[in-house]
Amino acid sequence: MADPLMAADVVRWPRDLQIFAGLCVVWSAVLLARALFNLSAGGVPIEDVIFGVKFHGDRARVTMALQAVVIAAFGIGILMRRSWGLILALLYMAQVVAGHIIFITSNLGIESQRIHVKIASIESPVVLLIALYVLYRARPLLVT
């Protein structure tokens, strides 16, 4: 006979959240490979942004590797159905949303950053939707 606690646990953790977690682990591997092997698009040096601060070169590689580790950690945590994975995902997404807001507002009037501000502005609704998705899926799991 199946354990009722395990059956309830399976129902509580939605499949789409597990898929999201799996995609996060894959994305973290991509970021880590990019950071470790200095892979950049079109020969442009690697850039990374954390809390609205832009990093270049080796510093960007370090921050990108750290982000990859955090993304892998919360992805694995969610796959293992641990609440700390959801909490870490929520904290990370809050940092990403705040970082976009800080970057856009602090670089709005700087001509050399215009294209980057435009890209961040285009990304912002998607980032916010992902953060809201994680919050929506995490809320019932963290309240109980």
The proportion of residues in beta strands is: 5-15%
Helix content: over 70%
Q: Look at the helices and sheets and give the structural class.
A: mainly alpha
Quick check: average pLDDT?
A: 89
The largest β sheet comes out as: 2 strands, antiparallel
Secondary-structure element order, N to C: HHEEHHH
- Terminal CA distance reads 25 Å
Total number of helices: 5
Give the neighbour order of strands across the main sheet: 1-2
* Gyration radius, in Å: 17 Å
Gross morphology is globular
Topology, number of strands: 2
Regions with pLDDT < 50 over 5+ consecutive residues?
Answer: none
Question: Can you describe what's shown?
Answer:
It is a single chain. This protein is mainly alpha-helical and 144 residues long. 76% of the residues lie in helices and 6% in strands. It is built from 5 helices and 2 strands; from the N terminus they run ααββααα. The chain has helices at 4-12, 15-36, 57-79, 83-107, 114-143, and strands at 47-50, 53-56. A two-stranded antiparallel sheet has the order 1-2. The chain is globular. It starts with a helix and ends with a helix. The relative contact order is 0.13. The model has no long low-confidence stretch (mean pLDDT 89).
